[in-house]
Design goal:
Elements (H helix, E strand, L loop, with lengths): L11 E3 L6 E3 L42 E2 L8 E6 L5 E6 L19 E3 L4 E2 L5 E3 L4 E2 L9 E3 L4 E2 L5 E3 L4 E2 L7 E3 L4 E2 L5 E3 L4 E2 L5 E3 L4 E2 L6 E3 L4 E2 L5 E3 L4 E2 L5 E3 L4 E2 L5 E3 L4 E2 L5 E3 L4 E2 L5 E3 L4 E2 L5 E3 L4 E2 L6 E3 L4 E2 L6 E3 L4 E2 L5 E3 L4 E2 L9 E3 L4 E2 L5 E3 L4 E2 L7 E3 L4 E2 L5 E3 L12 E3 L4 E2 L5 E3 L4 E2 L4 E3 L4 E2 L5 E3 L4 E2 L7 E3 L4 E2 L5 E3 L10 E4 L12 E3 L3 E2 L20 H20 L7
Parallel strand pairs: 1-3, 6-8, 7-9, 8-10, 9-11, 10-12, 11-13, 12-14, 14-16, 15-17, 16-18, 17-19, 18-20, 19-21, 20-22, 21-23, 22-24, 23-25, 24-26, 25-27, 26-28, 27-29, 28-30, 29-31, 30-32, 31-33, 32-34, 33-35, 34-36, 35-37, 36-38, 37-39, 38-40, 39-41, 40-42, 41-43, 42-44, 43-45, 44-46, 46-47, ...
Antiparallel strand pairs: 1-2, 2-4, 4-5, 58-59, 59-60
């Protein structure tokens, strides 16, 4: 059917490229539309009562309607309401649904614009959206602006989103998002209020900023890449110095060529590298790998959960909670290993090297090993040199040195609290200064020597050599040589297996009073006798320069020769 409106003909206009009827007057529609066609009343032709009516079956009628170049929101459209049986109704342009398309005048050859106030001055440009602008000159070819207020002023630029823009300098740039700005040549900006300002820059994420030259990349909400060739990936990640890389939520790389990977990780010095949540590398060339790891010194290395290397040059801490202190050259390897002093080494879980900054050159190797004094060495699980016992050495599981310049070698060996003591062997022990105990279970006291399994030199300045050889506390300055030899008298000597002293100042060779071959005693008391021969009554108590005549000299020589023969006969010395 054909419909007309009871209005003057100049109230009906043609708009843009569409065959739509715009009612320029904002007033209401008056009167019913009349069927001026013939036929069945549904659009058939035929004369009507109004010779200027628009018919449904007559072509070319809308082409003669006056054109309005720029519609406004208050202009009225005639529609058929599909939800009301296609009844005739009116709407304003301002009330068009978001999916509706409205053409504006393109203004340049080959361009097209959709939206109220949209313009395109660029050849082959496209502006879609109210107030969208594609190009500010014909030379801005291929510009595309999509969104309310979107703007592109450079060739081949693309801006998509309300207020998105490609301003001057953004040749072939892409800006996508509310208020996004891609101002660098061939830059890419995606995200609300994202910003890519330099050639080849890429900013992806709400408020992402790529402002560094030579292809800075910023990916993540609030991420920032603000210097030459920087990369920031992750929400709030920050790469702020030349060629720096930050990856992770709130990761920061602020040193030149620094790398920071992990949540809140920070690399703040030149060539610093940090990997792990909350890890930190704060000096040039430092490396921190692991959650909460910290590398503070130049060229320092920290690897492991909460591992920490101090401010010293080249410190290394590897292992969970491992630490290398403030001094330079410290190396701590193992969970909980710790170096407190410079040039120290701690290898093993819980190993500790040094107790103060002045304890240089310490070495602790083994689980729980500790070297807490200047120049101390502790090797073995639980081996230890205690604080203040400088230059001591403990080697073996649970070996202990508690005195200065002590040596303890063997499982649970203990050189004691005295100075210059030596304990070598499993369970070997020294309880005084300058004592020596060598052999499993050997023990000695001050200035004494025990050599042999279970040998014991309990007498001061005594000697016990042989398995289970011993000198008692009463055997001070005594000598026991041979398996199970025993000295219990002061300054006595017992030589041979199972030999035993019988009195002070006497020498016993072999078993006395037992079965088998028996060697007689050599007595040193008011003279010198051998094999039961009574000494001359006038013989001196000690041998001095022979000034008393040929007799005294000859007798002493004879006794010495006899003693040598006895020792050789007992197999204690080779024959001369």
């Amino acid at each position: 059917m054909t419909w007309i409106k009871n209005k003057a003909a100049d109230n009906v206009v043609r708009v843009g490229f569409f065959s739509l009827v715009f009612l320029v007057s904002v007033g209401a529609f008056f009167g019913p539309f009349q069927d001026v066609g013939g036929g069945d009343g549904d659009g058939g032709g035929g004369p009507g009562s109004d010779t200027t009516a628009v018919h449904t079956d007559v072509s070319g009628e809308l082409a003669g309607v006056a054109n309005k170049a720029t519609p406004v929101a208050g202009d009225i459209l005639l529609i058929e309401d599909s939800a009301a049986g296609n009844a005739k109704k009116s709407i304003t342009i301002g009330n068009l649904p978001a999916s509706a398309t409205v053409y504006s005048n393109p203004g340049a050859a080959g361009s097209e614009v959709f939206g109220v106030g949209a313009t395109s001055l660029a050849g082959n440009g496209s502006a879609y959206g109210n107030g969208a602008t594609a190009g500010d000159a014909v030379g801005d070819t291929g510009a595309i602006a999509i969104g309310q207020g979107a703007s592109v002023v450079e060739p081949s630029g693309i801006a998509i989103g309300d207020g998105a823009s490609v301003p001057a300098g953004g040749v072939r740039a892409i800006s996508i998002g509310l208020g996004a700005v891609a101002s660098g040549q061939e830059s890419i900006c995606i995200g609300d209020n994202a910003d890519a300002t330099q050639t080849g820059a890429v900013a992806i994420g709400d408020f992402a900023q790529a402002t560094g030259i030579n292809g800075a990349v910023s990916i993540g909400d609030g991420a920032t890449a603000s210097s030459n060739q920087t990369v920031a990936i992750g929400s709030a990640a920050q790469a702020t110095n030349g060629t720096a890389t930050a990856v992770g939520h709130s990761a920061t790389a602020s040193g030149i060529a620094s790398t920071s990977l992990g949540r809140s990780a920070s690399a703040s010095a030149t060539n610093a590298t940090t990997v792990g949540d909350v890890s930190q590398a704060t000096s040039a060339g430092a490396t921190a790998l692991g959650k909460s790891a910290i590398a503070s010194g130049v060229s320092s290395v920290s690897i492991g959960l909460s591992a920490a290397s101090g401010a010293g040059l080249g410190n290394i801490a590897i292992g969970d909670v491992a630490s290398a202190g403030a001094g330079a050259g410290a190396v701590a390897l193992g969970d909980g290993a710790a170096c407190v002093s410079p040039d120290s080494v701690a290898l093993g879980a819980g190993a500790v090297s040094g107790n103060a900054i002045g304890d240089t050159g310490t070495i602790a190797v083994g689980q729980g090993a500790s070297a807490l004094a200047l120049g101390a060495v502790a090797l073995g699980d639980g081996a230890s040199v205690t604080d203040g016992d400088d230059h001591s050495i403990a080697i073996g599981a649970a070996a202990v040195c508690t005195g200065i310049r002590g040596i303890a070698i063997g499982r649970t060996a203990n050189s004691g609290t005295g100075t210059n003591s030596i304990a070598i062997g499993n369970l070997a022990a020294v309880t005084g200064g300058s004592g020596i105990a060598i052999g499993d279970g050997a023990d000695s006291v001050d200035s004494s020597y025990a050599g042999g399994g279970s040998a014991s030199a309990a007498g001061v300045v005594s000697v016990a050599i042989g398995s289970s050889a011993s000198t008692s506390a009463a055997g001070a300055r005594g000598v026991a040589i041979g398996d199970f030899a025993t000295v219990t008298h002061s300054a006595a000597v017992a030589i041979g297996r199972d030999s035993a002293s019988t009195a002070a100042n006497r020498i016993t060779l072999g078993l006395v009073g037992g079965l088998g071959t028996q060697l007689q005693e050599l007595q040193v008391s008011d003279g010198f006798a051998a094999f039961g021969v009574a000494p001359p009554a006038a013989q001196p108590a000690k041998v001095t320069d022979p000034t008393g005549g040929a007799t005294v000299d000859a007798e002493c020589r004879a006794q010495l020769i006899l003693l040598i023969d006895v020792i050789e006969g007992a197999g204690l010395a080779a024959a001369l």
